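Quarterly update from the structural biology core.
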Amino acid sequence: MIHLFPKLKKKMLLIAVCYIALVAVYIVLNPGANHLVTLLISGAGLAIIMFGQLLNAYNAHSALLSKLYSDLNVDGFLKLYEPMLNIPLKNDNVALTVRLHASNAYCAQGRFDDAIALLKSCKLPNTGKPENDLLSKFAIVSNLCYCAEQKEDIETARAYMDELLDLKKKLEAMQTSKPEKKRMVFNTELNEQCMLFLTTGKCDIDALQILVKNNSQLLHKVTISLWIARAYLAENNRREAEKLLERIVNVAPTLYPGRMAASILSGLPGKTEEA
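Predicted structure, tokenized:
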């Protein structure tokens, strides 16, 4: 993660060089000191310094993600995050992580074609561990499926959905050899409910509400809520749909869910009848 923040990386290297130089000076000025003990203590100190800078990079990255998922400041996030897409990274997992988050930001702006292009450019990590490699592919296909669903490209979405469910089946099969408490859960509920809505006009609202309740990220709550509102309208539950659409507009007026919610509201005839 440190490679995503060149200034932090430069700072870490500078501190490390200065620290090593000080240790060397100490050894020269204290020839009678136990060099082995000095080197062991110095090595521990250097490890602490390195760990501290790596932790700073992790915290800096978390702060950036908070800007996207909690503050809904997508423009501010991309201004700082998009340059990271051009950083050459040896770690394919980190490179994939950056692209997944950037694609989520593009989706939040309604730039689904950009998100799809970015996801398709992802290099699948080759860790030599089948489960880890499948997990990476699962994440990419899940996002591609959702982009197609947002575009209401049913044929493409169905193809991705089939691939996603196949990956899920393979990953779940791998979990059977693990202790129950260590087994991972691979959630495709959102993709499945969106697909159901697009193909039948209805979906399981309760299932989507559970996803909203269990999700800690405001961006995802807002995005899922838009589908719930559409499902309410499909069931002629205009009162609940309006309440939810108005909430989405208030929370994310400039983002794709907010713009769509406003458009749907403006297209509703008349006023909601009082109960």
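The radius of gyration is 24 Å.
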